[in-house]
Amino acid sequence: MLRHIARLLALGCLLTVSMTPLRAQATPTASLWAAAASTDTLILDSGQLTLAPTASQAAAVYGSFARFGMFDSAPQQIAPANQVTVNWAATMPANAAVRLDLRGFNGERWSDWTLDVQAGQTVGFATIARQIQYRLVLLANDAAPVVDFVQLAPNMLAESEAISIMDAEPLAPTYHIRATRMGLVGDRTANGHIIQPNDWFVSLPSFRSLSSRGGGEYMARLSYKGTSIVVPVWEVGPWNIHDDYWNVEREKFSDLPVGMPQDHAAYFDGYNGGWAEKGRVRFPTAADVGDGAWTALGIPFNDEQEELDITFLWLGRDPGDNPAPMPVGSVTPEPAPVEELPAGTIQVDNQGEQFSRSDVKWYEFSCGKNRHSFWTFSTNDPAKAVNNARWTTPLEAGEYSVSVFVPYCPNGKSDTTSARYVVQHADGESLVVINQAEHAGNWAELGRYRFDGTGSVSLSDLADDSMKAIWFDSVRWTK
């Protein structure tokens, strides 16, 4: 539960670069808050942030508060840093509460949220941060709290130092758990989402890995009897709210091994007398799964509980569909098996010598084929289309089916619906438009063509949409 705060606290939306002691800053103008304002919060003429009059009742996970608002700041680009000192201030009436959380983005994925950051606190990151973002949760029964300012001061590193402290990224861990179907259509989740029929999301028992409303910063792979899907984390629960059992350094229950949910230990082993944070555990469940995702896994809708495997994708590279679960207490997954290609198939990956790309602006992601892919932003303006890439391979003369792999990677961006692949073949070239959003995680067929010695496929950032993610992964020619 959030505790009531009866004093002024400090942390700001004005980014600073000094690590010298921070003093209270001038109240920011409304425009500094506006980049990511939600419908539940309101920016006053004074520039302060408070709850909107129309703010809805808080989700049950926050306690009995009549009004709730969540404000996610716009991510702030910084030079590489491994620590950030935080300052903020708020006016706190009776029966009100404010919490500030902070996280960092290392260029590939967000860290877990550091929860309930206090004024003057220095937050450290396990890897370097190249962007930082804060989240404010405002709660009230009567008069609303008012946040005066937020200030972030990163401890910046030289680029060489930043690179030297980064470890090789591991595979994301997978554990075998018991889960339940969410239900509760019409209820509000911890990030403000209203649960819909056939929803695709998962609830996990910690605020540390809660995605923004409608966001996909924290994604989990759910695998059940050969079916594997990826869903965002939009809710906190069901039995605990401080049990990030997937982390080695977990919030609570540090005497339990990593991968062992506290409610499982309570139910099966009598841990804590059989009690979790929300009461005596009547049935073990370390995740609640939205009804649509539950059905997509092939679990009967009326089956309220089932065993499945869960992979925490924000902790490392995606191991792919249906990864083998790790033993409780283990943090090192087995390496993924080498993919066997269909007979007569040549595959060119985006990391091989037969792949070339322009030297402009690219982003890399540790998922996709061979756990690596490139992406960039799409543009519908030909004058601004500067990113392009090509896959080329020698081929025996003959007819081939050509396909491209579109990775499913949780980078927090919407995928393009109009990637324009150009196939060069013996009879000329063919333009094929692929909806990457619909093919995410799968191969997309470009057609069958005749080749006389060389195969080539090219893709640029020119599309029918703008500022969507366009992905560059692997191409296959199958004779």
Q: Could you report the average pLDDT, rounded to the nearest whole number?
A: 86
How many domains make up the coordinates?
3
What would CATH call the class of the largest domain?
A: Mainly Beta
Q: What's the end-to-end separation, in Å? A: 61 Å
Helical run tally: 5
Number of strands: 28
Please state roughly what percent of the residues sit in beta strands, choosing from under 5%, 5-15%, 15-25%, 25-35%, 35-45% or over 45%.
35-45%
- Can you tell me the CATH architecture of the largest domain? Sandwich
Tags for this model:
Barwin-like endoglucanases, 479 residues, 38% strand, single chain, six-stranded mixed beta barrel, Jelly Rolls, disordered N terminus, mainly beta
Summarize the structure in words.
- The protein is mainly β and 479 residues long.
- The chain folds into 3 domains: 14-164, Jelly Rolls, CATH 2.60.120; 174-315, Barwin-like endoglucanases (Beta Barrel); 345-478, Jelly Rolls (Sandwich).
- The chain is built from 5 helices and 28 strands.
- Strands 1, 2, 3, 4, 5, 6, 7 and 8 form an 8-stranded mixed beta sheet that branches. Strands 9-15-10-12-11-16 form a 6-stranded mixed barrel.
- A hairpin with a 2-residue loop joins strand 11 and strand 12.
- The longest helix is centred in the middle third of the chain and has 8 residues, at 262-269.
- The termini are far apart.
